[in-house]
Each structure stands twice: as C-alpha cells, then as structure tokens.
Amino acid sequence: MSTEAAAPSGLQIHPMDQFVVKPLFGGETINFYTPTNVTLWMALTVLCVIGLLVLGTRGRAIVPNRVQSIAELAYGFVHKMVEDVAGKDGLKYFPYIMTLFIFIVFANFLGLLPMAFTTTSHIAVTATMALAVFFFVTILGIVKNGVGFLSLFWISAAPLVLRPILALIEIISYFVRPVSHSIRLAGNMMAGHAVIKVFAGFAGVLGVGAIAPVAAITAVYALEVLVSFIQAYVFAILTCVYLKDALHPHH
Amino acid sequence: MATETTTATEAAHGAAEAAGHAAEAAGHGGHYVGMPQLNFDWFSNQIFWLVVTLVTIYFVLSRVALPRIAAVLAERQGTITNDLSAAEELKLQAVKAEEAYNQALADARAEAGRIVAEAKADIQADLNVAIAKADAEIAAKSAESEKAISEIRASAIDSIKEVAKDTAKEIVAALGGKADARAITAAVTARLKG
Q1: A64 in contact with B, Cβ within 8 Å
Q2: Which residue has the higher pLDDT, B19 or A50?
Q3: Using an 8 Å Cβ cutoff, are A238 and A181 in contact?
Q4: Is the CB of B50 less than 8 angstroms away from the CB of A96?
Q5: Quick check: A127 and B15 in contact, CB under 8 A?
Q6: Which stretch of A4-18, A34-48, A88-102, B176-190 has the lowest confidence by average pLDDT?
Q7: Chain A nearest C-alpha distance from B114 (Å)
Q8: Residues of A numbered 147-176 whose beta carbons fall under 8 angstroms of chain B's beta carbons: which are they?
Q9: How much is the CA Rg of chain A, to the nearest whole Å?
Q10: pLDDT digit string, tens, across residues A143-202
Q11: How far apart are CA A135 and CA A132, in angstroms?
C-alpha cells in the first residue's frame, strides 16, 4: 500500500501524511507495543477525559462550576440517550457507551488541533470499536434471549410470504452493521482532515494572498467541529440502537 | 465488559500476527502515497493502544467519574426536592398565618362592634334618663307656667270685669240712666261668659 516519496511536482500537497503512524522515540519498526503518535494522542485523550470527568468534578458541588457543568452535561446527555434508545435495562451498559462516546469525542476534537494526529481517523481504531460493539451485542442478545434473538430477523409484522426475503435482508444488514459503523466515523474524520490539509497546501502555494484557501479552511474547520461531535454522537446512538436490538429483539 | 475486552484482545492478537514483521513500509522521510489507514503493518499497534486506552477510560469512568457524577446529581436532586418541600411547608405556614390574621381581624372587628353597641346602649340609656328628667322638668315648669298663666288670666278676667262694670256704669251714666250696680254686674258677667 505504501511507497516511497511521490514524484516531485509543482504542487506539493500531501494530505495523507498527517495520518502516518510514527514511532515516538525514533526507530523504524512498529511493533504492537511500540509507543507511537497513536499512543501519544490516545494518552492525551485519556488525560482530557480524566481532566473533565474526574478533576472537573472534584468539587462535587451542588451548584457546579463550569467544568463540572460540562461533565454533568456529558453524563446526562449519554445517560438520557441510553435510557431513551435502549430502555431502562440498557442503563446497565451505560459505562461502556459512555467510554466509547467520551473517547471518540475527545479523540475527534484533539485531532482538530494543528499538527495533531487523529486516532479516530484510522479504520483500525474504529473497526476495533465497531467489532467490539458488534460481538458484544450479538453475544449479549444470544445470552439474554437464546433462540429468541433470531426473531430480530423474523419480522412478524410482515406478510408471511415476505418474511424469508426480509429475513435475508435483515441478516445481511445485521452483518454490515460493523462495517458502516466503523467506516462512517473513520471516513468522516479522514475526509475532513484531508480537505483541510489540501486547502492548507493551496494556502502554502499562494503565500500571503491566500485569502480564499484560508476562508475555506475556516469554513471546513467549523464544519469539522460540528462533525467531530455529531460522529461521536452517531457512533454512540447506533451502539444504543444495537444494544436495544440485543435486549429487545422482538419488533 | 468481559466479552468486549476478550473480543478486542483477540482481534489485537490476530492483527499483530498478521502484520507483525513488515513495519518499515512507511516512507523514510518521504511522503506517503495511498491511504495510511490501509497500512495493515500499523494495525496491531493502533489496536493495542486503543484497547489500553479504552480499558483505562472504562476503569476511570466506572470506578471514579460516573459514580461521583451520579452521586452529585442525586444529591442535587435531593436538595432540590427538599427545598421544594420546605417551600411548600413554608407556603402552608404562610397560608395558616394569613388565616390566623384574618381570624384575628374578624374577631377584633366583632369585638369593636360589640363595644360600639354597648357604648351606644349606655349612651342611649343615659340619654333616656336625661330626656325623662328633662321631660319631667319641662312638665313641672309648664305646669307652673300654666298655673301662673291661669292665675294671670283669672286676675285679668277680674280686672276686665271690674273695668267692664266701671265702663258700663260710666256709659249708662253718660247716657243719662241710673245704673243699678247689681244689674250691671249681672249683665257684664253674662256677657263675659258668652
């Protein structure tokens, strides 16, 4: 997949360089344990999570300060989402969904910093999470409902003749879930960052007169701020929907 | 949690074995061509650190952050509920106080009315006594006056009789008759009666 330096041309824009995984302390080989920029930015994500949700709530104030308000807002947001979508019995799995959501939010937003590495722009990361969700809810559904879990694919509301066809479609869509779940997030993050980098390349070529590319970067950046949050939200709410299917497979 | 972690770890191991050795594919200071996302040499590294990160976040959240925030929210809810019930109680007390105030006001009004009525009755009684006394005095005075008037009248009638007799005697004498004193008296008396 990867090759050496591109042929030199007039316009040197390398929008994909920002996604390259590099070892932090020199060296060339990347083993699974090598500390890389992935490690760095994921560690920063953890620090941000701790900063917001642990240090921010240190005061345990009845009347919260700003950071505590944001922490409570995040908590309430995800808690309500799980309760609304997956139901009361889904609240048992609220910490897992909160973990995913808060990780994706911070990874996305940290990735918006200049020179940052966006961990969630990698399909390896999002696919791991999506597959974890997929296997988790599938196993949970089978454990909770036994064979009854298969009624998820057997739509009793449809006419009998259509049910086998619908079941086939449902099964296909069920197994496509982790694919769409992961590619949606990674694709959004990658595309936005690549576009910003392309515009930045234009700005670099144009020099001081680069008003249009800078304006475009600003606009795309604003959009990316929105996308960063929305994609985290979408990932979390889809997880809730899958969880609901596992807990209540009957339509 | 158990299933999730196992799954992720298995995936990590699988990817590690698959990718493992050909890690130096990334450019040596050159620029990357193609999609870094599809460089499977890096998958094991990313997945490993992702699992570490997620497990860390999960433990931080489930052990510290989420119970704390839940406790804070519950405590706030409790405080709000308590404050609301306290406010409700105070409101009830205020209503009671208002009722008591109104009751006291009504009582005071009734008392005042009673006092006014009593005073009126007293005054009326005094007045009646005074009027009766005044009436009696007036009656006595008028009786006295009546008496005096009747005396005056009687004496006036006597004087008139006298004057009339004298005048009649004079008139009779002037007309050339000789007046009989007894006849004149009788005539005057008869006239005065008529």
Answers
A1: yes
A2: A50
A3: yes
A4: no
A5: no
A6: A4-18
A7: 57
A8: none
A9: 22
A10: 988 888 888 888 888 888 888 899 999 999 999 999 999 999 999 999 998 888 888 888
A11: 5
Which amino acid is located at A216 in the chain? A
- What pLDDT was estimated at residue B174? 82
Angle at A43 (CA atoms; ends A41, A45), nearest 5 degrees: 70
Residue B11 has phi, psi (to 5 degrees) of -60, -40
Average pLDDT, chain B: 82
Beta-carbon contacts of residue B52 (< 8 Å; ≥ 6 apart):
A42
Nearest to A41 by CA among B1, B34, B45: B45
Closest CA to A85 of A232, A237, A230: A237
Q: Any idea which residue has 């600003």 for tokens?
A: A218
pLDDT on residue B124: 94
Pick the residue with more confidence: B6 or A66? A66
Minimum distance, in Å, between the CA of residue B14 and any CA atom of chain A = 11
Contact A2, B27 (CB under 8 A): yes
For residue A119, the cross-strand partners are none
Please tell me whether the interface predicted TM-score (ipTM) of this complex is above 0.90: no
A211-247 and A163-206 helices cross at what angle (nearest 10)?
A: 160
Q: What is the number of helices (H) and of strands (E) in chain A?
A: 6, 0
CB contact (8 A) between residue A128 and residue B65: no
CA A242 to chain B, closest CA, distance in angstroms equals 14
Which amino acid, residue A27? G
* CB atoms inside a 10 Å sphere around CB A97: 24
Residue A116 scores a pLDDT above 90: no
- CB proximity list for A246: less than 8 A, separation 6 or greater: A137, A138, A140, A141, A144, A145, A149
pLDDT over 70 for what percent of chain A? 95
A5 → closest Cβ in B16, B30, B69: B30
Provide the pLDDT for residue B27. Answer: 42
Task: Identify which of A141, A100, A109, A149 has the alpha carbon closest to the alpha carbon of residue A229.
Answer: A109
DSSP code per residue over B132-166 = HHHHHHHHHHHHHHHHHHHHHHHHHHHHHHHHHHH
Q: Is B35's CB within 8 Å of A16's CB?
A: yes
Amino acid at position A189, single letter: M
**B108-161, pLDDT tens digit by residue?**
999 999 999 999 999 999 999 999 999 999 999 999 999 999 999 888 888 888
Mean pLDDT of B76-82: 93
Q: How many C-beta neighbours within 10 Å does residue B133 have? A: 10
